C-alpha cells in the first residue's frame, strides 16, 4: 500500500513538517485515535491518515499518490457504517484491533497494533485493505 503526499504540505515550512512528524503515530488516548481513524476512513481521506499514522517519512509523493488512487478505486463512495470486528488486549497496554467500514457491499478493513501508555497512545502498525483475510490473519 502506498499513501499520497498532500500538495498543501509542500507549502509548509520545514520546521512545521518536523513538528508534525514528531506527533505522527501519537494520539492523546484511544478515543482520540478512534475519532481520527473513523472520520478519515468514513470519508476516504487516506493521505493525511497514512501520514499521521507514521507514513510521512516512509513513502514518497509518488507512492502516496499510487496508494491513494488504488484505495479510492477500491472504495468509490464514502462509508456509512463502522464496527469493531476484533479487539484483543495484551499485556503492558498493547492491543490489536480490526475495524470494518462499509457502504452497501463495499467493505474496507483496518488493522491496528496499538500501545496505550500513561500519557498517550502509539500506533505501532496499521493496514488498510479490501480483503478481510489479510487484516484478520494478522491476529
Strand and helix map with partners:
Layout: H1 14-23, E1 26-27, H2 30-42, H3 46-55, H4 61-74, E2 81-89, E3 94-103, E4 106-116, E5 121-129, H5 132-136
Antiparallel strand pairs: 1-5, 2-3, 3-4, 4-5
Please explain how this structure is put together.
By secondary structure, the protein is an alpha+beta fold. The chain is built from five helices and five strands. It has a five-stranded antiparallel sheet. The longest helix is centred in the middle third of the chain and has 14 residues. The radius of gyration is 15 Å and the shape is globular. The two termini are 19 Å apart. The relative contact order is 0.18. The N terminus is likely disordered.
Quick structural gist:
With 139 residues, this protein is α+β, with helices and mostly antiparallel strands. 37% of the residues lie in helices and 29% in strands. The longest helix has 14 residues, at 61-74.
Strand order of the largest sheet: 1-5-4-3-2
Oligomeric category = single chain
Q: What is the average per-residue confidence, as pLDDT, rounded to a whole number?
A: 86
Which stretches are low in confidence, meaning pLDDT under 50 for 5 or more residues running?
A: 1-19
- State the end-to-end CA separation: 19 Å
**Overall 3D shape:** globular
The residue fraction in helices comes out at 25-40%
Q: In this structure, how is the largest beta sheet organized?
A: 5 strands, antiparallel
> What Rg is obtained from the alpha carbons, in whole angstroms?
15 Å
Order of secondary-structure elements: HEHHHEEEEH
- Counting DSSP E segments of at least 2 residues, the number of strands comes to 5
Number of helices: 5
Q: How much of the polypeptide forms β-strand, as a percent range?
A: 25-35%
Q: Which class do the helix and strand fractions yield?
A: alpha+beta
Amino acid at each position: 500500500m502506498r499513501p499520497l503526499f498532500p500538495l498543501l504540505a509542500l507549502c509548509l515550512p520545514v520546521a512545521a513538517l518536523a513538528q508534525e512528524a514528531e506527533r505522527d503515530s501519537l494520539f492523546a488516548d484511544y478515543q482520540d485515535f478512534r475519532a481520527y481513524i473513523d472520520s478519515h476512513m468514513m470519508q476516504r481521506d487516506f493521505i493525511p491518515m497514512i501520514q499521521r499514522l507514521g507514513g510521512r517519512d516512509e513513502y514518497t509523493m509518488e507512492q502516496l499518490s499510487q496508494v491513494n488512487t488504488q484505495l479510492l478505486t477500491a472504495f468509490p463512495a464514502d462509508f456509512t457504517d463502522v464496527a469493531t470486528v476484533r479487539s484483543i488486549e495484551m499485556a503492558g497496554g498493547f492491543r490489536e484491533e480490526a475495524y470494518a467500514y462499509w457502504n452497501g457491499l463495499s467493505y474496507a478493513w483496518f488493522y491496528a497494533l496499538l500501545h496505550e501508555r500513561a500519557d498517550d497512545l502509539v500506533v505501532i502498525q496499521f493496514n488498510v485493505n479490501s480483503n478481510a483475510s489479510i487484516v484478520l490473519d494478522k491476529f
